[in-house]
Design goal:
By secondary structure, the chain is mainly alpha-helical. The protein folds into two domains: 2-107, no CATH class; 132-198. The chain has helices at 2-17, 21-28, 33-58, 64-107, 111-205. Helix 1 (2-17) packs antiparallel against helix 2, helix 1 crosses helix 4 (64-107) and helix 3 (33-58) packs antiparallel against helix 4. The longest helix is centred in the last third of the chain and has 95 residues, at 111-205. The termini are far apart. The relative contact order is 0.05.
Length: 221
């Protein structure tokens, strides 16, 4: 599968450089279109999974938007390469169908048979266009959903950051109040110890104690 991917990449480059349609037929010849489509589907699923992991990793980094832009750029480059390979396969299938239709037309001798064949091709082409339009609509809806999910992730990350900042500020405030209270209690204890030491020194020296404060006079009735 890896070799076929390399082959498709090479022929996409050749198609962009060579204007002659015959060169496409020579390069595409020998490829298994069904297997290549299966490989492209697998690679696209892997790409989307890698893109989702990259978005989640971006929210763990400092520059979230730059990281998201780089992840989207890588996804876009891979998507363009896969689309280019799909176009090559589509061209090959169209040529195969055209060749089969032409052969069928050549085998028919009546104008009625040729008209019916043309009508069938028209219906098939219309169905194909309808399917392509439906797929484009689904892809657009998926991309919009991914964009909304990424936006919600970013909002949740900001909300979580704000909550963490508030919790940290509250913890710092509580810690500061505790430290101030300890300082105040230590100051009270030092003052009490100082008064007790002064009283012990006075007693040891036989000095009289300080006169008590005068009693507060009672209010007259």
């Amino acid at each position: 599968m890896k070799n076929s991917s390399i082959a498709l990449t090479v022929l996409v480059t050749l198609f962009a450089c060579l204007p002659v349609l015959q060169a496409q037929e020579n390069v595409v010849q020998g490829l298994d279109v069904a297997s290549e489509r299966e490989r492209i589907t697998t690679e696209r699923a892997q790409m989307e999974s890698e893109y989702s992991r990259s978005l989640r990793a971006c929210y763990q980094k400092l520059h979230v938007n730059n990281c998201k832009d780089e992840a989207f750029k890588i996804r876009l480059e891979k998507t363009n390469k896969l689309r280019a390979q799909e176009r090559v396969l589509n061209d090959q299938e169209r040529k195969q169908r055209s060749a089969a239709s032409l052969q069928s037309i050549e085998d028919k001798n009546s104008l009625d048979s040729q008209s019916e064949s043309a009508e069938r091709r028209g219906r098939s082409s219309q169905q194909h266009l309808d399917k392509l339009e439906s797929n484009l609509g689904k892809n657009q809806e998926r991309l919009e959903k991914e964009a909304r999910e990424a936006e919600n992730l970013e909002k949740n990350a900001q909300r979580e950051k704000d909550l963490t900042d508030r919790q940290r500020a509250h913890s710092e405030k509580v810690e500061a109040a505790r430290i101030e209270r300890e300082k105040y209690l230590q100051k009270l204890q030092s003052s009490q110890e100082h008064r007790e030491q002064v009283e012990r020194n006075r007693i040891q020296r036989g000095l009289p104690g300080a006169d008590p404060l005068p009693a507060k006079p009672l209010d007259k009735p």
